Amino acid sequence: MFSKTLKCYLLIIGALCFSHVQAAVSNGTYLITSQVSGKPVEVTGASTANAANVLQWSDNGGQHQHWIVTSRGSGYYSITNRLSGKAMEVFEWNSADGANIVQYDYWGGDSQLWSITEHGNGVVSFINKFSGKALDLYNFSTADGANIAQWSYWGGDAQRFLLTPIKSSNVPTDTSTTNGAVNHWPISGNLGTHDPTIIYENGTWFLMQTGPGIYGKYSTDGLYWNPLPAVFPNGLSWWKTYVPNQAGIDVWAPDLKSFNGRVWLYYSISTFGSKVSAIGLASASSVGAGSWRDDGLVIRTTNSDNYNAIDPDLVIDKNGNPWLTFGSWNSGIKLVRLNPNTMKPTGMIHSIASRSGGIEAPTIIYRQGYYYLFTSIGVCCDGVNSTYRIVYGRSTNVAGPYVDKNGVNLMNGGGTVLDAGNSQWVGPGGQDIGNTDVIARHAYDASDNGAPKLLMSTLNWDSSGWPRY
């Protein structure tokens, strides 16, 4: 190993020692490339095993060369391999120079936590919390297979790595119309609906909604709707573990989104007026194929929490990274980054909207440089006495702050009204948006004893980039 003594050079009035600045790196998926070799850090052989070695190799585009960097608080980060979902760590708690770096199931110990030192232009060094030593390309090698180890920090190129964000193929698209004509769709058929979520797949519209076992429907033209069997007609046994008072197989406010070649179905289990709630996850190769896989618990809340784990909505940011927004009443709407392997939370929970008198059912879409947050405010579920209405705000950052057309922060009760209903359709809300140009929601039909029914409309945008019918 080359000598790596930290050198200080005398200047006119003293000694100037090597200095560095701790970085605040954004949570994300990155290529970590050696400054010496220009080659990415990877897990050997695309292994998913514990203790598999970390080394460098020529860029081959594999997910075993992608690393999910996640803030864990107090200036430390985990570095998790995208393919295996396992964390980079110092092997066997070794504090010596030259100790090996491997992957292992993440558990949050100091050997798996790293501070990040910034050198400029995306170049950083990683310092292990346990050993205090730096991630290091052993022996300055440029060869494929050269080992990644740790060494006392001295800041040279062998300890410098370029962080390059991975641009996902899941980047949102935008087909919406600016200043188009108002178009409320003339739908018919099976319209009894509460909290709809919609997705378009191979020429067919699919919808899931609140109801027994996650009730669904489909339409070949978006206008006439037919019923579908429930996703989990008998429920799942683990639901009552987290929500003991759940009645039967009642499931709330599902969300359907495609990501990384699968369809993800988030949903919530709760009881009315309670914070004892759980968000669950199922997935399938496609909605049409069915054969839903139970992916288990995503997040839960209890009466000791100041937010509620209901009303999930999968958000794909402008770089193709997944997030989950959720929440209701209490301290309001939340947002958390998802691990693209597990599609479950990683990192801190952000607060993005709050309002007295009720707020829930968040939906976030990305359009032309802005993230738009739609929520339902007021009180639902009381027929023609419901006060639900749909409001929105926008932000240039997925984690906010979100402001309405008057510049009022949605954390401070802001929100521009999109839909407050009318004499027939009372209390519209529980909305979902397909791409950026179709909005589905429920409202209570005053001409039919306040029955909740599906409404669908084209979502237009004004010349300033604000949504409208």
If you had to describe this structure to a student in words, what would you say it looks like?
- The chain is 1% helix and 45% strand.
- Residues 1-20 have low confidence and may be disordered.
- The chain folds into two domains: 21-165, Trefoil (Acidic Fibroblast Growth Factor, subunit A), CATH 2.80.10.50; 188-468, Glycosyl hydrolase domain, family 43 (Tachylectin-2, Chain A).
- It is built from one helix and 38 strands.
- A hairpin with an 8-residue loop joins strand 24 (277-284) and strand 25.
- With 469 residues, it is an all-beta fold.
SSE arrangement:
Layout: E1 9-11, E2 14-16, E3 21-22, E4 28-34, E5 41-43, E6 54-56, E7 66-73, E8 76-81, E9 87-90, E10 101-104, E11 114-120, E12 123-128, E13 134-137, E14 148-151, E15 161-165, E16 188-189, E17 197-201, E18 204-209, E19 211-212, E20 215-219, E21 224-228, H1 239-242, E22 250-259, E23 262-269, E24 277-284, E25 293-301, E26 313-316, E27 322-326, E28 333-338, E29 345-353, E30 359-367, E31 370-377, E32 389-395, E33 416-419, E34 425-434, E35 438-445, E36 451-458, E37 460-461, E38 467-468
Parallel strand pairs: 16-21
Antiparallel strand pairs: 1-2, 3-11, 4-7, 4-15, 5-6, 7-8, 9-10, 11-12, 12-15, 13-14, 17-18, 18-20, 19-22, 20-21, 22-23, 23-24, 24-25, 26-27, 27-28, 28-29, 30-31, 31-32, 32-33, 34-35, 35-36, 37-38
